[in-house]
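Recap for those who missed Tuesday's class. We walked through two folding examples back to back. For each one, the amino acid string is listed first and its predicted structure tokens come directly after. Nothing is annotated here on purpose, so try labeling regions yourself before you check the end of the notes.
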Amino acid sequence: ALETSPASPNLGCFVQGVDLATASADTMAEIRSLLFEHGVLFLRKQHLDPQQQIDFAEAIGDIVINRFFTPLPGFPKIAQLLTEPDQDWIIGEPWHTDHNYDAAPALGSILYAVEVPPTGGDTCFAATQAAYDALDEALKAKLAGLQARHESAHVFAPSEQTRLALA
């Protein structure tokens, strides 16, 4: 049986008691339901090979191929996010939202960390619905009907100079 505990009052849930490599369809459906309820799930200490990662993702929803990252050799549905030792910038900093620049954004993203630095490299999440709900009614009224367009060129540009110029 799945064991869950909230990660914060507004967002996230730690999920234990599951091996994603062998989880049943019913368990995957329960995980999908938890994702919709909590927005972010943390499933630690999973050991998945690339095909198992794809199987897990497809049990949650359709995979949207990320056109900006090099795919894992032999597995075009998996995007590798690599930061090389000599790289002086990190993609997406100081903040980003995955795929919100797409006309039809992906349901979500799955981050499967293979190698992480001993410090730094943190991934944080924001509860934007909770932030909106906390606004006073006057500000909500000002925001009603506004639209925004988000593009990705400033995030994925090949140099820091170009990224800053486009930001």
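Example two. Treat it independently of the first, because the proteins are unrelated.
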Amino acid sequence: SKLRGFEVGGVDYITKPIDSSEVHARVRTHLKIRELYQQLARQHEVLQLEIEQRRLADRHLQEANDRLARLAALDPLTQVANRHRLNDYSLSCWQHLQHQNEAMAIVLCDIDWFRLYNEAYGYGSGDQCLCQIAEALSATILRTSDLVARYGGEEFAIVLPNTGLPGAWEVAKRLCAAVHDLALPHERSPLGHVTLSAGLAAMVPTANLSISALMNQAESALQAAKDRGLSLIHIS
């Protein structure tokens, strides 16, 4: 009978003859056990709530950190990568490609006669022009490994890992064509609309060279393109 009682959910038993004092003591014990169990259940619920709140807070914190990281890597005006992100990414690509013996290219772009554009239309319009060009350049880049960044002022840089001069040349042509197709009016330009000049360079990274060597070549190529005329591409 005792075993059957336990099997159907009993937790204790009392034998006859019944002793009321023993009954009261056992009832008090089981009430206390029940009270402790309920306290434990409430504490467990509170703990679970605190854990969930902590998880939610951690998720919000991570999301905030991710947003800050993205903002720290973006140019606030054009929303493409900033100079800091450009330096970090180009150096990372350079070091990685040293082990692969693969070429890396840089394309530097400059908006032609941009100072005169600001003088003619105002700096607010100049900012809008920069944003439109940044968007056009970003839309032209096809690979996720390529990076469009604002190099400074009206200059943009495009990092092209695993790319030699022929591939960089094709990219540069598409970039200049994309800006040309915007047909942004520029009354102070000889062509009557906003154009882009570009300089590009490519090399296979080695331990004896630094990323600055590639960047310097691209800068020289861009300067050569600017010296030769409007909307030109020059290879260093």
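Answers for example two:
The longest strand covers residues 104-111.
Residues 16 and 23 are 11 Å apart (CA to CA).
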